[in-house]
Design brief:
With 366 residues, the protein is of the alpha+beta class. Helices cover 40% and strands 22% of the residues. The longest helix has 33 residues.
Length: 366
């Protein structure tokens, strides 16, 4: 299953395909007992997608057979034991992809000539993804971080490890106080320089905040190299290159929590200031119209805010039931995607943070 949504990947997903490009969305659950329903629900929504293919006269028989096979292959690749909060399954003639999302989605099947990406974009924005690079003299490990966990990432040449090293015993050197000299060794500096080059290349392709863990001497070498460390947060915590995901998460979590608190406080200040300048917008209808006009500079969305609406003659959104024919269950994700495309800063904030404002608010450019 796919997790990392880069700008290049998003552009590829959005390119037109031969009809039909099928998008299947379904919510999933991380824990018991809620996750017991996920296998049945997944099979049912894929069966609904196949029925739509059968019933659509615009789909030639050979394409229907091909896309149906792609949906079956996608189902075989899904491991619900590692499910997050939603799945997006894309299938078109000759291809399929499965995306695991850290944000819930409505159950939905769409046949079009492009894939439905708004839920991926919104999930990525809510995740606040980051990288962690853990240094040691003989190994450099890359971790992919998200909302509440990290996992080792095998990408960009990572993990990096050194071959045989003569007379290298890091534990002994630490006991006798010779650890700094390990990192003055030219072979070690060359090894860390290779790691710096690799992570710099990775950040160009997949930009996100970077945290670097390691002994202070290792972090000093990376700073001297002047590459990725320039914009990274350095965490003086050794032993994590060979550590567990939980150990890495515990090392960076205090920093992430502090940054989240600072970010939330800055959003509140911006919203209060915007009220005084009459640049404030709130409520799904007002924010939706401002987003369509490209006027939103900052969008604040409560993390679990969901609302179902319908479009009232193209001018306003009005409340709707999920089973209404023209209901739009993912309007919040649609607004998030629209704001990101027009250069807005999108921030997800704790539930109840916006007070008397219902779930969503923004600061306008004009």
């Amino acid at each position: 299953m796919e997790h990392a949504l880069s700008p290049a990947t998003l552009s590829e997903l959005r390119r037109p395909r031969p009809y039909p490009a099928v998008s299947v969305l379904t919510p999933t659950h991380r824990r018991e007992p809620d996750n017991a329903q996920d296998p049945v629900r997944l099979r049912n929504v894929l069966a609904a997608a196949k029925k739509q293919l059968e019933a659509d006269p615009a789909v030639p028989r050979d394409r229907r057979t091909d896309v149906t096979r792609q949906l079956d292959q996608a189902l075989a690749e899904i491991d619900l034991a590692h499910a997050e909060d939603g799945l997006a399954i894309f299938a078109a003639p000759g291809e399929h992809q499965v995306w695991s999302l850290a944000r819930t989605v409505p159950e939905r099947v769409v046949l079009s000539d492009t894939f439905l990406t708004r839920n991926l974009v919104s999930a990525r924005a809510s995740m606040r993804p980051f990288w962690v690079l853990s240094l040691s003299a003989d190994c450099v490990t890359l971790w992919n971080g998200g909302v509440d966990r990290v996992a080792e990432e095998h990408a960009g040449g990572f993990p990096l490890s050194r071959g045989h090293r003569t007379n290298f015993d890091a534990e002994r050197q630490q006991r006798i106080g010779d650890m700094p000299s390990t990192y003055r060794d030219e072979d070690t500096r060359h090894f860390l320089r290779a790691a710096d080059t690799a992570v710099t290349r990775l950040l160009r392709e997949h930009p996100r905040p970077l945290y670097v863990t390691g002994d202070p001497a290792a972090l000093a070498v990376l700073e001297d190299l002047g590459g990725a460390a320039r914009n990274a947060v350095l965490v003086p915590h050794g032993g994590l290159a060979h550590g567990t995901p939980d150990a890495v998460w515990q090392a960076v979590r205090p920093l992430l929590d502090a940054e989240a608190r600072d970010s939330t406080a800055s959003v509140l200040r911006e919203l209060r200031s915007a009220r005084g300048r009459k640049e404030f917008t709130a409520g799904v209808d007002e924010v939706w119209r401002s987003a369509r006009e490209g006027r939103v500079r900052l969008l604040a969305v409560e993390e679990n805010y969901r609302v179902t609406v319908r479009d009232d003659s193209g001018d306003h959104l009005v409340p709707a039931e999920a089973d209404d024919l023209d209901a739009r269950e993912d309007i919040v994700d649609e607004i998030v995607e629209q704001c990101l495309e027009t250069g807005a800063d999108v921030r997800f904030v704790p539930d109840g943070f916006l007070g008397d404002v219902t779930g969503i608010a923004g600061v306008l450019r004009y």
